Amino acid sequence: MKSKKELEFESLYNSHKDKIFRLCLGFVSDSALVQDLFQEILIRIWRHMDSFRGESSISTWIYRIAYNTALSYSAKEKKKPEQAPLPPGMDLKEPENHTQEKESQIRKLYDAINSLTQTDRVIATLLLENTPYKTIAEVSGISENYVAVKVNRIKASLTQTLNPNGK
């Protein structure tokens, strides 16, 4: 029989796993590192579930843990020597079903997001999840108005990166 904490975690996992996974894709590009970061975020959520005080929504709390974990994880990874990439065809699959063409487009988008600054990465990934500006502001620690400004700049930057010739 599962404990109350296990049932709550399972519910949180089921409702947030895809969003957390996509946030991971915005911070690291290597598929093995994406899995490691994803697991690290889940471990931290599990460890700190008892400390949730309800001062924000549970989603905001989870995004904040995911964002802070991703920041520290990507900083640690940048300090490590670069490793050889996985052979072609061994890419990690996102937890949803996509065609190969769509997977390629998604990978290009996340590669472009990965080239953004750390704050812009989290804003972009949360924006892709249709997260309200207010929640993005709480997670990223900037004002709601500045989120709107950053969103416009991020969109312009991603458009330039993905369509350098304006096509």
Structural features, described:
The radius of gyration is 17 Å and the shape is globular. The model has no long low-confidence stretch (mean pLDDT 83). The chain has 7 helices and no strands. It has helices at residues 4-27, 31-48, 58-79, 100-114, 118-128, 133-140, 144-162. The N and C termini lie far apart (56 Å).
- SS content category: mainly alpha
> What is the terminal separation in angstroms?
56 Å
Instruction: Label the overall shape.
Output: globular
Please state the CA-atom Rg, rounded to the nearest Å.
Answer: 17 Å
How many extended strands?
0
> Unreliable runs, pLDDT <50, ≥5 residues?
none
Q: Mean pLDDT, as a whole number? A: 83
The H-and-E topology, N to C, reads as HHHHHHH
Describe the largest sheet.
Answer: none
- Helix % is over 70%
Total helical segments? 7
Report the sheet-strand fraction: under 5%
